[in-house]
Design a protein that fits this description.
The complex is a heterodimer of chains A (about 110) and B (about 120).
Chain A (H helix, E strand, L loop, with lengths): L3 E4 L2 E3 L6 E7 L7 E6 L6 E5 L3 E2 L7 E6 L2 E6 L8 E7 L6 E2 L3 E4 L1
Parallel strand pairs in A: 2-11
Antiparallel strand pairs in A: 1-3, 3-8, 4-5, 4-9, 5-6, 7-8, 9-10, 9-11
Chain B lengths: L2 E5 L2 E3 L5 E8 L8 E6 L5 E7 L6 E3 L7 E6 L4 E6 L8 E7 L13 E5 L2
Parallel strand pairs in B: 2-10
Antiparallel strand pairs in B: 1-3, 3-8, 4-5, 4-9, 5-6, 7-8, 9-10
């Protein structure tokens, strides 16, 4: 089974900062990696698919990168509405798995 | 627009069973794989089960394999998750999610809460 790790587990930054969250997989994923944002009391929302494809309607300050076993989610120009939990998901092979999450605060 | 609506949550006694349902609308349901994800209170997301567009293949996480069963009825545009031998660790919000095969999960329901308690 593919194991997923995320770092950091939490971070606090200022409005306007650039932050990066890293997701690592125990096996090569090619680009079968997605990023999700979840705000309190809400269902998760897909931000990035195929490692780097920005979903429709997602602000361009979000970007995804990486390949193989290491992937990143970068938020440039952090905004107050970006306070949320962020998760990566490997959908390369079953059983699928989410990373443990990163809590982003302002 | 794509809509997914879960139902069937509630309080269940330990050791008992429960069946959750997901009603889909706004897309060609029979053409899409579907999946269940849960989230225990204050915890992260956990993938549970996947069912192919035609129901011919099903996959489960190790944590629920043998206890949970996913199924679908394409004529009714519904998906179900049967939960068996429930314990307190199964207390969670259960999300129904559209999951095109080989692609990211795209649309999520709002979830249904299952509380396992005596």
């Amino acid at each position: 089974d593919i194991q997923m790790t995320q770092s950091p587990s939490s971070l606090s930054a200022s409005v306007g900062d650039r932050i990066t969250i890293t997701c690592r997989a125990s096996h090569v994923l090619r680009n079968n990696l997605a990023w999700y944002q979840q705000k309190p009391g809400k269902a998760p929302k897909c931000l990035i698919s195929a490692a780097s494809r920005l979903q429709d309607g997602v602000p361009s300050r979000f970007s995804g990168g990486g390949s193989g076993t290491e992937f990143t989610l970068t938020i440039s120009n952090l905004q107050s509405e970006d306070v949320a939990d962020y998760y990566c998901l490997q959908h390369h092979s079953f059983p699928y798995a989410f990373g443990p999450g990163t809590k982003v605060d302002i | 627009q794509v809509q997914l609506a879960e139902s069937g949550g509630g309080v269940v006694q330990p050791g008992k069973s429960r069946t959750l349902s997901c009603a889909a609308s706004g897309f060609n349901f029979k053409s899409f794989g579907m999946t269940w994800v849960r989230q225990a209170p204050g915890k992260g997301l956990e993938w549970l089960a996947y069912i192919w567009y035609d129901g011919s293949n099903k996959f489960y996480s190790n944590s629920v394999k043998g206890r949970f069963t996913v199924s679908r009825d394409n004529s009714e545009q519904t998906m179900s998750l049967h939960l068996d031998s429930l314990t307190g660790d199964d207390t969670a919000i259960y999300f129904c999610v559209r999951a095109p095969y080989g692609k990211a999960f795209d649309y999520w329901g709002q979830g249904t809460l299952v509380v396992v308690s005596s």
